[in-house]
Amino acid sequence: MQEVLKTLGIQEVNFGTSTGVEFFGNTSQNLIESYSPVDGKLIGKVSTTTKEEYEQVMELAQEAFKTWRLVPAPQRGEIVRQYGEALRKYKDELGRLVSYEMGKSLQEGWGEVQEMIDICDFAVGLSRQLYGLSMHSERPSHRMYEQWHPMGVVGIISAFNFPVAVWSWNAMIAMVCGNVCVWKGSEKTPLCGVACQNILAEVLKANDLPEGISAIVTGNYEVGEWISTDARIPLVSATGSTRMGKIVAQKVAGRLGRYLLELGGNNAMIVTPSADLDVTLVGSVFGAVGTCGQRCTSTRRLIIHESVYSDFVQKLANAYGQLRIGDPLDQNNHVGPLIDKDAVAMYNNAIAEAKKSGGKVLVEGGVLEGEGYESGCYVKPCVIEVESQLDIVKHETFAPILYVMKYSTLDEAIALQNDVPQGLSSAMMTTNLRDSEQFLSVAGSDCGIANVNIGTSGAEIGGAFGGEKETGGGRESGSDSWKAYMRRQTNTINYSTELPLAQGIKFDF
């Protein structure tokens, strides 16, 4: 791992995290120590950003915006293209760092970097498609149109579970739109942020562009509050828990800024009588245990028709018995560790609460100990049968706990699925066209993502990503989500020799 860190420009103690290079005095003596959940070892230390350094970052970002906004959008796309090429060069090393610092499987680590590459490709194309509209004016010899301008400094607050991809969803689109970015990554995965910034700094330097186009600030919730309350940041995009999102929303709204929130998920899969159970098994198991259940799109609930319930639950138990839990950098393993011991405690508490409320454990959980599990962060994915949606089932627990329940009618199943505060992702497994169409109709899933015959987990960058209710209502990544990062302007041009007023109003003197 030390060779990987060296390749990514990360030393044992990496100062200058504000932009990825050492140009501040780094007056902070506070260091964030990053320990790997894989083996419990110290990976490196990152200095926290002081308020003075934050102010310097903001000054640099504002100054960089004056340059960057004047660069034609297709040329901004070229810079993002170069960053995508650099990510291809460092894909192995960055993917390994993601896997080691966060704990997800190596395949998922590489996949996360590939997602960054994909969003770069998407943003490059987008740089030539920032379209406005033209409209017919009611006044003669007038032309009306809309155009979109960059907003300025975009603040990005991201979570540990996707320590690099979620930043890129925001940053790459924000950059081609002409914005500059200030990023606060999770203090649980700070080295991933430093690595991304180091790679981007190389690209900006090679093109003689100000490094303030992208900057990182590091620290705890206080640094996030600086961003949320900073009137110089017109848009804050925050990914994390619903509790965190509500705080950010209040802070940003209090200064009439804009926010884009991607918060909790409590995602269900409905298994109908006609479902292909083999396909369903793969989708449900990966959805529940992938990233050790630490995806916002992880499958938390299986709502299974009573006619196939016993058969499928048996298949599920058999599949769980074959899961290999261990070092995520070993590609023979399916499940890695939780992020830290606090996450383990929440996992244990949720299982205890489900049992106390009458849940029946079908696949036993527990914390793994012994050789290979020294970090204390490895747990067994578990399955719990519930008669109805208990209070604990309505809460998102970032861990591999899967709740299963029966249903009789499709209306009942959809009602069960929607009966949670969150509204991110959902899925139905069926070969019945009528069932699938009802699920996707206005009377069906109330989630921002609704899939048929694929799981709840995972999303392609071409589609806008986000959810409803306590998930926050934001949209990132594909489709027309670029509009969130720009300000709309309506323009009217009078090329006549008179000044007619709208609505036929007369004003003569």
TrEMBL record:
Start and end residues of each Aldehyde dehydrogenase domain: 28-490
Gene3D superfamilies, per the entry: Aldehyde Dehydrogenase, Chain A, domain 1, Aldehyde Dehydrogenase, Chain A, domain 2
RNA-binding among keywords: no
Enzyme class: oxidoreductase
Assigned EC number: 1.2.1.3
Species classification: Bacteria, Pseudomonadati, Bacteroidota, Saprospiria, Saprospirales
CDD domains, alphabetized: ALDH_F7_AASADH
Protein known as: aldehyde dehydrogenase (NAD(+))
Active site (UniProt): 262
